[in-house]
Amino acid sequence: MDFERVLRARHSYRAFRDQAIPTETLKMIVNQAQLTPSWANAQPWEVVIATGTTLTKIRAVFQRRTAQGVAGSSDLEVAHRTNWASAPRRNMATWNNDLSRYLAEATVGVQAYGTSQLSLFNSPALVYIVVPGPVNAWEIFDTGAFAQTLMLSAANQGIQSIPAYEIVKYPDELRRILNLDGSKKILMGVALGYANEAVINGFRTRRVATADILTIRD
Check: CATH 3.30.70.270 for 3-75+119-204? Predict the structure, then answer.
């Protein structure tokens, strides 16, 4: 696929079909993501993909703990919106307003949004990007770059994705189910799948004007 088309094909989808992703395709996506650059070629990432029975266990535990009102506690500290600078705060507010308006106009409502999160987007494959502790800031940068390459590789195969806090909010349960020792920090989770026709998948986010973020000095 043309690179421009790949970039524009990748969106954060929130509902996937009940269709498994072939194991060889998952392997190829991860293999291509390994081309991501990293600090001094550290390649700090490890990848664990949950499918089938393992994914069913994760979904059940997450749904139960969420229903019990157990607060999430991801390995990466969550930054409240008030801890962000003014420009990203404005972007978050714009996103929230746009999403609320879309859900209302599409007569979907916030319940559908919450249901998609509770089901972990009905994804057939959850990708966990893991880094052995202790974790430094450069490893976090490297992991983010790895995740983006992975999602673009998936998009090139007609597979959609969404990176989400919901996928990693109970890391202790994940370490237990995925058989990871306590030194492994789960930095990011990405849901992969084939997008279905749910209305919620029609939402698109805005991007700020390039002129507003770019400075070129000669």
Answer: no
